[in-house]
UniProtKB/TrEMBL annotation:
Gene Ontology terms describing biological process: negative regulation of cell division
InterPro entries found in the cross-reference section: AAA_dom (IPR025669), FlhG (IPR033875), MinD_FleN (IPR025501), P-loop_NTPase (IPR027417), ParA/MinD_ATPase (IPR050625)
GO cellular component terms listed in the entry, alphabetical order: cytoplasmic side of plasma membrane; cytosol
Domain AAA: 35-184
Recorded GO MF terms: ATP binding; ATP hydrolysis activity
Gene transcribed to yield this protein: ylxH
Keywords: ATP-binding, Nucleotide-binding
Name of this chain's protein: Flagellum site-determining protein YlxH
Length: 298
């Protein structure tokens, strides 16, 4: 059985349509690797997934090709926020001999997303042949995507930390709530303890006034620099917005349902700063990201 599956994967890897099947179109002018950015938080309920999807849409509005990967293991939150579902995850590449064109779903404004489900978790147990097949398939996006956003689960589990440590850049989402601030610092502490080197950026969500957001930034940047020797940059604030709740109930992203709302404008500003501001000198791309994940789990 395992021999048959391995042989099937070898044949698929050699097949000319193994990658290009579906609606993915190569961008001829794209020569650099994708910027792989992990979006994470110390605790749940801070608006991380909604932020990730709306950031992807804001980047798409800036003419960027964006792929979102749902790495919240066992969940399917990305599809819920977008109001669309997909029957496949990364695991189907192996179990059902699907191609990347089969499992990638089209989102609004040209963004694409991959459901995580349990597929990301099974990266821990892949054979070398299986790993290389997945890497070959998903590496195609380095020729297409300007940004690949990894939406992790909340908390400090080993799975979450692996996704954080493997990324080119990391965005930490928090809110002004004391527990959220404490948990965001805990994430930074674990990151520093594992010799994380990727640029770490902070977004304070659900603020009611600028002074509130700045207080959170000052507190976290000061303690992280003093006790962890870890520089953390402020990427921006997102104001509390009742329209976000409405958008969630509508299963339509905020930037589509309420594009002129205050939270939408905040996220658009963050996307602009992310695009124009400091980035890694040489993004490693999704291939290296996956190889790191695999090595962390061995």
């Amino acid at each position: 059985m395992m021999h048959d599956q391995a042989e099937k994967l070898r044949q698929l890897a050699l097949s000319s349509n193994a990658i290009t099947k579906g609606t993915i179109i190569k961008k001829n002018c794209h020569s650099n690797n994708s910027r792989v950015i992990t979006v994470t938080s110390g605790k749940g309920g801070v608006g991380k997934t909604n932020f990730t999807i709306n950031l992807a849409l804001a980047l798409a509005d800036l003419k960027q090709n964006v792929l979102v990967i749902d790495a919240d293991l066992g969940m399917a939150n990305i599809g819920v926020v977008l109001g669309c579902s997909t029957p496949y995850s990364l695991l189907n590449l192996l179990e059902d001999s699907k191609t990347m064109g089969d499992i990638v779903s089209d989102g609004p404004r040209g963004i694409k997303f991959i459901a995580g489900g349990s597929g990301m978790y099974h990266l821990a147990n892949l054979s070398e042949i299986q790993l290389q097949y997945i890497i070959r398939q998903i590496s195609f996006f380095d020729d297409w995507a300007d940004f690949i956003l990894i939406d992790t689960g909340a908390g400090l589990s080993k799975n979450v930390l692996n996704f954080v440590m493997a990324a080119d850049e990391v965005i930490v989402i928090t809110t002004p709530e004391p527990t959220a601030i404490t948990d965001a610092y805990a994430m930074m502490k674990v990151y520093a303890g594992n010799q994380g080197y990727a640029p770490l950026r902070l977004v304070v969500n659900r603020i009611t006034e600028l002074a509130e957001g700045q207080m959170v930034v000052d507190k976290l940047t000061q303690v992280s620099l003093r006790f962890l020797t870890l520089p953390v940059n402020n990427l921006g604030f997102v104001f509390e917005d009742r329209n976000m709740v409405k958008a969630v109930k509508m299963q339509t992203p905020l930037l589509i349902s309420f594009p002129q709302s205050i939270a939408s404008r905040c996220i658009q500003g963050i996307a602009s700063r992310l695009l124009k501001g400091e980035k890694t000198a040489q993004p490693s791309g999704i291939r290296v990201f996956l190889e790191k994940i695999f090595n962390f789990r061995r």
